[in-house]
Structures are given as C-alpha cells and as structure tokens.
Amino acid sequence: MTQPMTRRTAALAACALLAQPAAGLAQTAPTAQSSVKFGATLSLTGASASIGEDQRRGMLLALEEINARGGVLGQPLQLIVEDTGGRAVSALDAAKKLVSVDKVAAVLGEYSSSLTIPVGQYVVREGLPFVNHGSSSPAVRSIGDGSFSVIGLDDASARFSAQDLWDLGYRKVAFIAPNNAYGQGVAAEFKKNFEQLGGTLATQLLYTAGQSTYRRELQQMERSKPDVFVYSAYGQEAAVINREAFDLGLHQAHPWYAIYHTMCTTDSAPEHVAGQRGIDVRSVGPQGQNFKAAYEARHGHPFKSSYTGYAYDAVRLLAAAVQKAGTTQPDAVKQALRSVANGYEGATGTLTFAADGQRAEQPYQKTVYQGRVQPR
Q1: pLDDT tens column, 350-374
Q2: Domains 4-153+285-363 and 154-281+365-375 in one fold
Q3: Which CATH number fits domain 4-153+285-363: 3.40.50.2300, 3.10.20.600, 3.60.15.10, 3.40.630.30?
Q4: Closest residue by Cα to residue 263 from 189, 149, 182
Q5: b/e map of 39-52 (b: 16 or more CB within 10 Å)?
Q6: What pTM was computed for the model?
Q7: How far is the C-alpha of 285 from the C-alpha of 363, rounded, in Å?
Q8: Alpha-carbon distance 88 to 128, whole Å?
C-alpha cells in the first residue's frame, strides 16, 4: 500500500524549500521535526491514476507557494501523500497510518466517493478535520461534523447536466455509470432531474468496476434506441468504454455526453472521443490564472483534468485555517475553516461553506472534446 517514493517526493518538496529565505520571518528556518503536517490519500495507481497524479501536482504547487512565503505558524508545511490504488481498504489503511503514525493535523482526500466516505468518517471519528477535494456523491454529506468539501456535490451537477442535455434537444437517454457511491448518487440525481424536465431514461445501467469489457452493457444501451448516450466513468474504465463504443460504431451512430468530462476522457484515445460533449467542474476561476500558468510552466502541458485546482485550493485553504487558528488543535482549525471559507477567493472561484460544510455554490462549464476537453 505505502508508496515510499510518493511520500519522499512530497517531503523533499517541503524540505528543499527550507533553504529559501522565509519572507517576513525573523527566526531561523525551523527543522523538519517542527513542521506542520497534512496528510493526503490519493489514487496514484488504479483506474483514476492519471487524475490522482494531477491532483498531487496541484497539492505540491500549493505546498511550494506556502513554504516560499514562510510556511504555516512559522514552520514549514509538510505534505505526506499515501497512494490508495483506488481501493477502499487501502484508503482506510492509509488514513489510519496518517493519523496514528504520522500524527498529521488534518487529512485531505480522495477522488472516488466510495473511498472518500470511509476515509472521512474515520478521520472525523478521530477528531481531526477532513477536507474532500474531489468526490461529489451526495452521500459525502453523511461523513459528519468536521468534514468539509471544496468541490460541489452531484445534486448540483445532475441539475446542470440534465438541463444542458434538454437544451441540446435530447429527450431519450441511455445512461451508464459505476456501481458505487458516486455512480449511484449521480444516476439517481440525473434521473430525477431529467425526468422532471420531461425527458425519458430509455435505460440506466451501473457497471462493475474493473471489468475487462463493457460490450454487453453498450449493446443493451444501443437496443433502447436513445437520442444520446450519457456516461460517467473513471479514467481507465472510461477508456475501455470509449474504445469499445468506437469499435462497435456507437460513437459514430449516436452523440455521446460525458458527466465530468475530463474524468471520462483523460485516458481515452482522442479519436475515440472526438466531438464528444459534456459538462465538468470549472478548472480555474478568475483568481486561478497564476496557478494555471505555474502548472503549465512546470509540466509543459495544461491540466490533465478539471480537479487539479480543487486539490490546490484544499491545501491552501487548510493552511490558511491553521494560520488563522494559531494552532493545529483540531477544533480550532475546524472553526477557522468555516471562517476562512466565507467568500474565499481560490483558484477554482469564490468558495463559501454551507452549514453542513459543503461548498455552497459549485461553478460548472459546458464542454466539448476537440483534441482535449475545452469549454464550448
């Protein structure tokens, strides 16, 4: 489970910055032993590895910026990243290690809601703050007090996508998503919202994660004679769905529409998704252009997904809360998170927490795949 290279990369990113002058600090640079520690669980291997790595890159850019400005509470910030492999058991083991062994002040994670929920529930039971930066199932609300989300949940995305499909003229939909907390949530919310508009779900399927083929599901969807195929799937699983749909001629015969478009196309061959439309969370807002430029300068290409900025915002917001609290004491940090996230200008836009700790308003964008996912 543990990925030593991943943890070492994050630790070195923090420690290397200790050699830089800390602006505004009169004291000498503190040692690594006196650092403020955050933990993160990420899917760096498995079906969502491409997005997990992009989230890690966003976190490390935030880490560097924070440490270049003197760290948190006059100490360097250290980020300890654990790879979950996209598995719930590994994610929970990683969270337990971060809390009990590494003694982190807070935990950030994950991407799949089926991992985020058990991790978050464990962390809040231990009394620590938990910040969700990538999961959108409405069931995230059940994690409990002390849990916060910098990304909106699927009741909002389902309304947005259902309205967009209706406006595009589609009335009969074939729908597929993963059979887990995320897929079940988005499927139920999409069905409710699309039918309220007057639309019909000709078929709705939930696939089992990790299948080697989805031909049976695709052929069942085709037999329902929909106006459009609507799907939401994790990177490598989506790549199989898109390839097989292309091989079966379904991409050519029907329009395809992706909910969380970059998630669905990150690992797909461009010819398999060319012209595909969808929606996604907005990757950067008005205050995110410097972050976008820094990412592109570092990696030589645009974000791989729309989730990078949410991981970046999560680290910066949590660091700002610890700084405001003046301590890593958990209850003080939780209170400060609510205070800081009240019109907070993040890379992804203005962020305010609702009473339940969830992002009050989530910005979305309509997208099209033309060489990459871009606004339409």
Answers
A1: 999 999 999 999 999 999 999 999 9
A2: yes
A3: 3.40.50.2300
A4: 182
A5: bbbbbbbbbbbbbb
A6: 0.83
A7: 9
A8: 20
Q: Domains of the chain: which residue ranges?
A: 4-153+285-363, 154-281+365-375
Which residues face 72 on adjacent strands?
A: 75
Class of domain 154-281+365-375: alpha beta
Dihedral sign, Cα of residue 288, residue 132, residue 266, residue 137: negative
- Whether a cis peptide bond, with omega within 30° of 0, leads into 222 is no
How many CB atoms sit inside 10 A of residue 9's CB? 14
The strand pair at 342-346 and 349-352 is best described as antiparallel
Return phi, psi of residue 341, to 5°: -85, 60
Encoding tokens for residue 227?
């106006």
Residue 153 CA, chain-centre distance (Å), reads 11
pLDDT tens profile 127-140: 999 999 999 999 99
Maximum CA pair distance of the chain? 71
